[in-house]
Amino acid sequence: MDLASETAAAVFDDAAAAIRGGLTDADTAAAALVAAMTEAERLWLLDGDEPFWRGIVRMARAYNTEPIVAGAVPRLGVPGLRFSDGPRGVVMGHSTAFPAVIARAASWDIDLEERVGRAIGAEARAQGANLFGGVCVNLARHPGWGRMQESYGDDPLLIGSMGAALTRGARTHVMACVKHFALNSMEDARFVVDVRVDEGALHEVYLPHFKAVIEAGADAVGTSYNRINGIPAGDHGELLTNVLRGEWGFGGIVLTDFMWGLRDPIGSLVAGQDVEMPFRQQRARALPRALRDGRLDPSYVERSARRVVRIQLQHAASVGPAPDAAVVASPAHRALAREAAAQCTVLLRNERLAGGASLLPLETGCGEVAVIGELAAATNAGDAGSSSVSPPATSSILDGLREALCPERVLHHDGTDERAAAALAATFGTAVVVVGHRPDDEGEGIILSDPETLALAGPPLSRPRLARMAGRLLGAVWPRIYSGGGDRRKLEMRPEDEALVRAIRAVNERTVVVVIGGSTILMGPWRHEVGAILLAWYPGMEGGRGIADVLLGEREPGGRLPFAIPADAAHLPHFDPDAREIVYDRWVGQRKLDHDGHRAAYPLGFGLGYTTFAITDLALRRDADGVRAIARVQNTGARAGGTVVQLYASDPAEPAHRRVRPLVAFARVVAEPQEIKEVAMPLDLLPLSRRDPGTGTWSLVDANWLVRAGQHADDSAGPTRPLPRG
Questions:
Q1: Residue 257 known to be catalytic
Q2: Which of 194, 235, 257, 441 is catalytic?
Q3: Each residue of 505-542: pLDDT tens digit?
Q4: 218: containing domain
Q5: Does residue 269 belong to any structural domain of this protein?
Q6: Which string of DSSP letters, residue by residue, matches 136-191?
Q7: Which of 54, 245, 359, 649 has the least C-beta neighbours within 10 A?
Q8: 471 and 491: one domain?
């Protein structure tokens, strides 16, 4: 390619066209483009385009209102990485707000998540982005983590499967970035905590889902703030080069988390960190001088520059024209958000009343409905941090019920006067009580008072004394300015919510409790007393209509828990939101409950429907591609519906009361009344394998593995078969 003969601003487009036409490859084209750049332009590729302090002011006013650009080189037509958050939908503009990621995890529906990814990708591209930064697959080690709502729970197989689906969907329109690599699962101490983890737990529990998303085609990996065994994640050469690129063969780019995501601007580049996001900060100050005085080999600049250009060329060569702006919050995407809200809703309890019928679904002729609680009239969108979406309209649960039943049949009380609310509920046929969490209870922790971290902003804060003073000032002032988000210190509902539920149940046996939140919420004794419990999560812009669809039986409550809810918070791993150092081991979620001999209040994968299913047969077959399962499933009820077939493996040599049962396969099944279906699933044997730290190779643990089919982790009714030996 003769660059000198090209019109300068068209060089990038011409290179992408040549790749598309098979005339060259992305590596060759990227090398030619980088060779045509000046040293300053090559360095420009390695961080964000906006100056730090100007960017800070803009971000303080409003986050990500337009694409955040890094590495644009207008002289050669290089568009740059044009970043858009976030996990619930595009943060820019007035986009579709889908249910929170943890809610979508509860669908266990790969196809649904891929469709959500396509919709988010289309809306991002229509608004000028080419990189979607919302594939969050951090394992939720403890439900106190404030951003658990942004990820898919605590099982590596489920997390990886759902994250891969979102990635495949989004990549039809934009590049996809998976984050936060790695071991990011606390908020309040995320800038300072050092996570100590052994090789086995790291690779076998906390990394498999990242690998699954990379295998699905992720273009970028975003690193986390925390240290890992003493080394900042953004500077971690073992993970960023040896594991990510060496073992896994990743060919994309690595990005820092925003503003404070690396600690060593020179060392991080050598370690494999390609781009400091989102502004010109540490690298803009350090790298030019390091090149001049010989502390930085230019080959490292060249290496990352080529990666950044190559990934943009590959994307530009593979996608079609940008969707029209009309796709943003379009009727089709809003319909998808409504479908998702219903499919994500988990029915935890549904008691039979006098006459034999279950409380849910409500009959359309059920009389008047009292809707109780402040959250019933709220949008329930979730975290107000970097994942916040501003849809053009929202539907609350009160809106949804009034729309479905007509306004005069649905009366609302905000529940702040408990006696008045109970008096109202006593006169109605059914009471729907909506309680749970708000953005100020959990979410991204916008907390920064650590002097060492503040010093990364550069002058004048690079002076230790000024950084300490700024830290003390922020520590005193910031909680008064911004009190929301962060980690949860308690896992129970607010005491006033529990009191409200008990008061309403005391006067109305037809009480339905709808719980809003982004992770585990421990429920008191009232959970055994009310007629029905729906876990609705943060259900998105169409959540009110979607939940009304479930309450009234227009749709099934499709959700199944993406984590186990323990009977006691003491059964969870140790969690210290203020920790400077913490140890992560392999025992999390359902596996920890099994290992410790504790039975869950609600196990992994649990959820009721409006019909019943039975798994009547299971066959396991080994071939050249591994082991495949074929399960026979029957809808034994009187209405159409769905379930999730889940396969768990166990070693019968372990004591029965402490037998760990990793999830190895799952599939969603939908069937008509009495219909029998066969469903085929490949088994993922990685949860039954161990990695050799010396060679990086994996081998199946030698055991007489048994595989059981069920509809949740504690379901013993399904068939069990021995795993075929290979």
A1: yes
A2: 257
A3: 999 999 999 999 999 999 989 999 999 999 999 999 99
A4: 3-327
A5: yes
A6: E----SSTT-TTGGGS--S-HHHHHHHHHHHHHHHTTTSEEEEEEETT---STTTT
A7: 54
A8: no
